[in-house]
Design brief:
The chain contains 5 helices and 9 strands. It is an alpha/beta fold and 192 residues long. The longest helix has 18 residues.
């Protein structure tokens, strides 16, 4: 089973992922999308940073820097060339250490992925793997994301201000049960 959060921008989906991971003891690897100001241009820029529970497993930077900038916010057509290099490093580390990971982190998937067939192929590869995925899906019109939502092995949670606090233990327990099973289930879970 894979677990995805969706909801309006700024509702706290990534913060909820942090709460789910806190104190669980899960060994995880993957990526986070982090937004920072690009001081030189006074624009918000999106970074893809590596997110591994153990330090030193991935060559990609785990903090926002010039090497992991992927696009300027509000202009996803202006992608940085680093995008492919960053996700290749992150997914290579996930593959290298997959036997040590309880969970794969994908925070977040959205419209920028339209132009990267290989990235989408790698995402599907890990969704099909035996390691559960915890991630965020942007609410954008994109067939790739709709396909993820329709998968039988995806539990989808729509997060809002009223329910976000209640979902951390629910999702954490579901992930823990999935890890104990040692494989993904085939039931359809839809928690919208």
């Amino acid at each position: 089973m894979n677990f995805f959060l969706t909801g309006k921008k700024g509702v706290g989906k990534s913060t909820l992922i942090c709460r789910i991971l806190e104190g669980q003891g899960f060994s995880y690897g993957g990526f986070r999308t982090v937004v920072r100001m690009d001081e030189g241009r006074n624009r918000r820029v999106c970074h893809m940073v590596s997110a591994f529970s153990k330090q030193g497993l991935c060559d990609a930077a785990s903090v926002p820097c010039k090497e992991n900038r992927i696009f300027y916010c509000r202009n996803k057509d202006e992608l940085f060339p680093a995008f492919q290099n960053v996700y290749e490093k992150i997914f290579a580390a996930v593959e290298k250490y997959e036997n040590r990971l309880d969970l794969i982190l994908m925070d977040e998937l959205g419209a920028a992925e339209r132009r990267y067939d290989r990235f989408r192929m790698l995402v599907n590869k890990w969704l099909d793997a035996d390691i559960p995925v915890l991630g965020v899906l942007q609410q954008v019109d994109f067939d790739f994301l709709e396909g993820i939502k329709r998968r039988r092995d995806v539990a989808l949670y729509e997060i809002n201000e009223d329910n976000r606090e209640t979902f951390a233990p629910i999702i954490g327990n579901a992930i823990r049960m999935e890890i104990k099973k040692g494989h993904k289930g085939a039931d359809t879970w839809n928690c919208l």
